[in-house]
TrEMBL record:
Its EC number is 1.18.1.2. FAD binds at residues 27, 48, 56, 374, 381-383. This is ferredoxin--NADP(+) reductase. It comes from Rhodococcus rhodnii LMG 5362. NADP(+) binds at residues 206-207, 218, 381. It catalyses: 2 reduced [2Fe-2S]-[ferredoxin] + NADP(+) + H(+) = 2 oxidized [2Fe-2S]-[ferredoxin] + NADPH. Its cofactor is FAD.
C-alpha cells in the first residue's frame, strides 16, 4: 500500500490494533475470531445495523433448520471474548461514516453481506402476486423492517430457481402452519402461514437435474414432511455428455441427480400438498390479468451437449396465482466504497478493497479498508465458507499492518463517546444475552425453544432495558 498518513505511530507496538468490523453476520464474526487468534494484540468493535447479531443465520436460514441456526451457539464463543465488543443498532452510512471509523480505528473490515433479490427481467415480473424470495424469507424469519403480513391466497404457486433458497421457499409454502409452529417463527408469521391456501408448489429450473444447485441434504429433506408429496416428471431426467462428466466429477451433483431420479420413478403418494420439481423449463413470462398473476409461461429447453441448454420454441403455460423468484441474493452498495454493480461486490484483491473512479486512488488499495464474506465474493456458499474468506482477509490486513494509516483517536471509549454524544442508541453483547433469554422465555409456555421478537423497539427494550431507543 502507498501514501498512508501515520498520524498515530504507536499503532504497531504500544497499544492494541484497533479494528472496526461492519456487519455482525458469520463473516464479520469469523473475521473477529481470526484477528483474535492471530496472536496480535487486537481490540475489535463489531458494528451491526440490526439490534441483534448473526446476519442471515437469524434472518435468512429457514426456521425449520434448527441445526443450522444452532451455529449461533458456536459464534457465541467468539463474541464472549474480551477483545471484541458488539455495537448493534448502528447503521454504517447513516449512524457512522467511513471518516468516523478512520478516526477511531486503524483498519475497517466490511462484512455487510447481502439482503436483496437479484432482478429477473421477464415480462410480468412486476405484477401483483410476483415476489422476490428475499422479501418472503425476511417475512417468515421475522425481520423487523418488512411488513407483518404476507398474502398467501394462491392455491398454486411457482418458485423460479433451483438452489437451496428456492427449496426453503417451496418447503415453507408447502408445509402447514402447524408443522412450522414448533420452530421459532413469530406469532404474526404463524397466523399468516395458518391461512396459507397453497396446495401445489411448482419449482422451475431452466436446465437439468445435473445442473441443479441444490445440496443433497437440503433436497432430501423436502421428502421428510408428512404433508408434502414431492413429484418429479420422468421426462425431466436427462443428461448429456457434460452432465455425465459433472456427475462423475462431483459426488454432490451425483447425489442430487440420484435423488431426483428415484423420485421420478416412484409412485405418487397421497400427502396433501404437492411439490413439483420441474426441469428444462425456462421462465419466459409471468401471465397477468387485471394487474395480477394468473399464470407462468415457460419455454421447454434441451441440453446442447455442453451442460447448457437451448430453447426448443415450445411453450407451456402453468396455472399459478403467485410467482416467487429465487434467482439469487444481491448485496447493497456501501457508502464511500467502490461497488461492482454487475457482480454485486466491492472490488477487492483477496479482501483488500481496490479503489475505482468513484473514490480516491483509482486502481490502488484503499488504505486500511477490507471486505469479507458475501460482500467480498458474492452471495454464494454456506456459512462455513465465510470462515476461509475471513482468514484470507485478516492475513492480508495483518501483513499491511506496518503501513496502516493509524487511528487519530484509538481509545476504546472514543467511539462510545461519539455515539452517545450524538444520542445514537446502540445495543451490546450483554444485551443480546438479555434478548436471547427474553425470546426463550416467550417460547417456554408453549414448549418451544424460542419465539422470535420482530419489532425493533421490543428487541431494543429487551436488550437494553431502560435505555432510550
Ligand atoms: C435464504 C437463505 C438461507 C440460507 N440457508 C443456509 C443454510 O441453511 N445453511 C448455510 O450454511 N448457509 C445458508 N445460507 C447462506 C449463509 O446465510 C451465508 O453464507 C452467510 O450468512 C453469509 O455471511 P455474511 O456475514 O457475508 O453475510 P450476512 O449473513 O448477510 O451478514 C451481514 C451482516 O451485515 C449487516 N449489515 C449490512 N449492512 C450494514 C450496514 N450498513 N451497517 C451495519 N451493518 C450492516 C447485516 O445486518 C448482517 O447482519 C442461506 C442464505 C440465505 C439467503
Amino acid at each position: 500500500m502507498t501514501d498512508q498518513n501515520t498520524s498515530d505511530t504507536s499503532t504497531t507496538d504500544s497499544r492494541p490494533l484497533r479494528v472496526a468490523v461492519v456487519g455482525a453476520g458469520p463473516a464479520g464474526i469469523y473475521a473477529s475470531d481470526a484477528l483474535m487468534k492471530s496472536g496480535v494484540d487486537v481490540s475489535i468493535d463489531l458494528f451491526e445495523r440490526m439490534p441483534a447479531p448473526f446476519g442471515l443465520i437469524r434472518y435468512g436460514v429457514a426456521p425449520d433448520h434448527p441445526r443450522i441456526k444452532g451455529i449461533i451457539t458456536a459464534l457465541h464463543k467468539v463474541l464472549d471474548k474480551p477483545q471484541v465488543r458488539l455495537i448493534g443498532n448502528i447503521d454504517y452510512g447513516s449512524d457512522i461514516t467511513l471518516d468516523d471509523l478512520k478516526r477511531f480505528y486503524d483498519a475497517v473490515i466490511f462484512s455487510t453481506g447481502a439482503n436483496a433479490d437479484r432482478a429477473l427481467s421477464i415480462p410480468g415480473i412486476d405484477l401483483e402476486g410476483s415476489y422476490g424470495a428475499a422479501d418472503f424469507v425476511s417475512w417468515y424469519d421475522g425481520h423487523p423492517d418488512v411488513p407483518r403480513t404476507w398474502p398467501l391466497e394462491a392455491e398454486k404457486v411457482a418458485v423460479l430457481g433451483v438452489g437451496n433458497v428456492a427449496l426453503d421457499v417451496a418447503r415453507v409454502l408447502a408445509k402447514t402452519g402447524d408443522e412450522l409452529l414448533p420452530t421459532e417463527i413469530p406469532a404474526n408469521v404463524y397466523e399468516g402461514l395458518k391461512q396459507n391456501k397453497a396446495l401445489e408448489v411448482h419449482v422451475f429450473g431452466r436446465r437439468g437435474p445435473a445442473q441443479a444447485k441444490f445440496t443433497p441434504l437440503e433436497l432430501r429433506e423436502l421428502d421428510h414432511s408428512p404433508n408434502i408429496e414431492v413429484i418429479v416428471d420422468p421426462e425431466d431426467i436427462d443428461y448429456d455428455a457434460a452432465s455425465e462428466d459433472a456427475r462423475r466429477n462431483s459426488k454432490q451433483v451425483d447425489m442430487v441427480a440420484n435423488t431426483l431420479q428415484d423420485w421420478a420413478i416412484r409412485d405418487v403418494g397421497s400427502r396433501p400438498h404437492k411439490l413439483f420439481l420441474h426441469f428444462f423449463e425456462s421462465p419466459h413470462e409471468v401471465l397477468g390479468e387485471d394487474g395480477k398473476v394468473v399464470g407462468l409461461r415457460t419455454e421447454r429447453t434441451e441440453l446442447d451437449g455442453t451442460g447448457n441448454v437451448r430453447g426448443t420454441g415450445k411453450y407451456n403455460d402453468w396455472d399459478v396465482q403467485a410467482v416467487y423468484r429465487a434467482v439469487g441474493y444481491l448485496s447493497q452498495n456501501i457508502a464511500k466504497l467502490p461497488f461492482d454493480e454487475q457482480a454485486g461486490t466491492v472490488p477487492n484483491e483477496a479482501g483488500r478493497v481496490v479503489a475505482d473512479d468513484t473514490v480516491e486512488g483509482k486502481g490502488r488499495f484503499m488504505p486500511g479498508t477490507y471486505v469479507t464474506g458475501w460482500i467480498k465474493r458474492g452471495p454464494v456458499g454456506l456459512i462455513g465458507h465465510t470462515k476461509g474468506d475471513a482468514n484470507e482477509t485478516v492475513a492480508n490486513l495483518l501483513e499491511d499492518r506496518p503501513d496502516l494509516p493509524g487511528a487519530e483517536d484509538p481509545r476504546e471509549e472514543a467511539v462510545i463517546e461519539f455515539l452517545e454524544g450524538k444520542g445514537t442508541p446502540y445495543t451490546t453483547w450483554e444485551g443480546w444475552y438479555r434478548l436471547d433469554a427474553h425470546e426463550r422465555a416467550l417460547g417456554e409456555p408453549e414448549g418451544r425453544e424460542r419465539v422470535k421478537v420482530v419489532e425493533r423497539a421490543e428487541m431494543f427494550e429487551a436488550s437494553e432495558p431502560g435505555k432510550k431507543a
